[in-house]
Every structure is written in structure tokens, then in C-alpha cells.
From TrEMBL:
Organism of provenance: Chitinophaga agrisoli
Molecular function terms from GO: DNA binding; sigma factor activity
Lineage top rank: taxon: Bacteria
Family assignment from sequence similarity: Belongs to the sigma-70 factor family. ECF subfamily.
Gene3D superfamilies: 1.10.1740.10, Winged helix-like DNA-binding domain superfamily/Winged helix DNA-binding domain
BP terms from Gene Ontology: DNA-templated transcription initiation
Location of the RNA polymerase sigma-70 region domain: 33-99, 137-184
CDD domains per the UniProt record, alphabetical: Sigma70_r4 (cd06171)
Protein name: RNA polymerase sigma-70 factor
Keyword list, A-Z: DNA-binding, Sigma factor, Transcription, Transcription regulation
Lineage: Bacteria, Pseudomonadati, Bacteroidota, Chitinophagia, Chitinophagales
Amino acid sequence: MYHVAIPGQLSELNDEELLLQFQQGVAPAFEELYKRFWGVLYYQAYRMLEHEQDAQDVVQEIFTTIWTKAGGIELSGPLAAYLYTAVRNRVLNLLAHKRTYRHHLDSLKQFLSSADHSTLQHMTEKELAAYIEYEIGQLPARMREVFELSRKTALSHKEIAGQLQLSQETVKKQISNAIRTLKHKLSHFPLLF
């Protein structure tokens, strides 16, 4: 059950008191925290990412986490330090995922560049993308799940491992096996058409 709080009083509370009010069910306390921190957290994320939409997404995810897990947040210091650390960690995970994704993409592009060009030239990019998606769909279920989480979300290997209850090494191996399998399948692509 949410408590009623007078908005003017909320602005007079310090950060930790606001979080405590929100944890006790005072929903407007979250709004006050959002107003208080959104701009500085966005600025921090933008400085690291240099990409407006990614920075907005990072900050939104942080506030979504606060909204959904407020009761589980235990501070060992100031709330500002907790939030800055959360943004930094989320940005680092996002950058690591982008590097991994680019590596996978570069690997597939490099392979395709060495394929039979006479056949590939007759295909549209859309057809090739559809074929790649089809072959991804043919991967074993667990391998496909790991590969798709790796390429379609901003999750790190560690986060994928936690979500699927696997070791990080298993996640890396599944992604590597998926790439090897896709390269093999794509090497036969000209023969299929």
C-alpha cells in the first residue's frame, strides 16, 4: 500500500531518505529521485558512450532497476555513488557487448568476403540476412539461445551465463561453436542456390 507524501516535503529530503521513502511505498519519492538524478546520470553515460540513445537507455535501465528492486537495494554509502557506479558498470557491459558483437559480425563478414562472389553478387542483402537467420534457427536450442542473447541484447557473457545458469566458459564455447557452425553452413550457400 502506498503512503501519501506531500511533494514539497520530498524535495527537502536527502537522497538516502528519498530512497527509504520509496522503499516504504511512497511512489512520489521515486519521481523526486528521477528528477534529481536523471540529468547527471545521463551526462555521465553520454560522456562514456558518446551516443545519445545508448546513454538514455542506460539511465532508463538504472531507474527501471530501482523501481523493480527498490526493496533489495542496500546502500553502503551515498545513493549518488551507488547510481554512478551502476551507470559506469552498465556502460562498460554495453561497450563489451558491442565489441563482442562487432567481432562476431566482422568474423562473418570476413568469411563471406572469401565466398564465391559470382553467386553472392546475385543475391540481395535481404536474402542473405534471411538465410543467415534461417541457419541460426537451425542451431541446437541451447546454442541458438546463447548466440541470440549475445547478438540481440546488450548482455555480457557473464550476464548470459547468470540468466541461463551456465558457466561463462560454456557461454563463450557455445558462441564460438555457433559461429563455426554458421561459417560451415554459409560455405555451402552457393551450392544450395
